[in-house]
Amino acid sequence: MSRSLTKPLPRGCLDLHQRKVYERGARLRPAIGKPSVAKEKAMSHVNTSRRGFLVKAAMLSAVPFIAPALVGQARAQELKPLPLDNPQAKALAYALDYKTVQHPAFKPDSNCANCQFFTAATGACTLFPGFSVPAEAWCSAWAKKAG
């Protein structure tokens, strides 16, 4: 391979392909040197010891036990009692005590406690979302709980 004497090769250019490109007059990329000082420091401080691994593994395995104590537990929002002036309650002839009901649709011993729409654990009724009703209440939509 012949090299033009008028063009000296740039410093650090050792690759045969780069020499050919340079001789044709194309611009060369800067030579790839050593990694930056920050990169060298970061790479030299990597802890690869067994002790370091075990410490990190122990800390990670403790996270599921410690996190709930730090975060707390999620709780359902408390339901407000259903007011008697609620439009839905008025439309269904809602009463707080089933013993005082004088409605044509009333059946003896029908109350929220034995209605399919009532959830005893929360006091919620699917007919009145966002409100709680007492187990002794009654409305005209009462339907006997299955079972």
From TrEMBL:
InterPro entries: High_potential_FeS_prot, HIPIP_sf, TAT_signal. SUPFAM superfamilies: HIPIP (high potential iron protein) (SSF57652). Transmembrane segments: none annotated. The keyword Amino-acid biosynthesis does not apply. One of its GO terms (molecular function) is electron transfer activity. Keywords: 4Fe-4S, Electron transport, Iron, Iron-sulfur, Metal-binding, Transport. Pfam families: HIPIP. This is High-potential iron-sulfur protein. It comes from Arenimonas caeni.
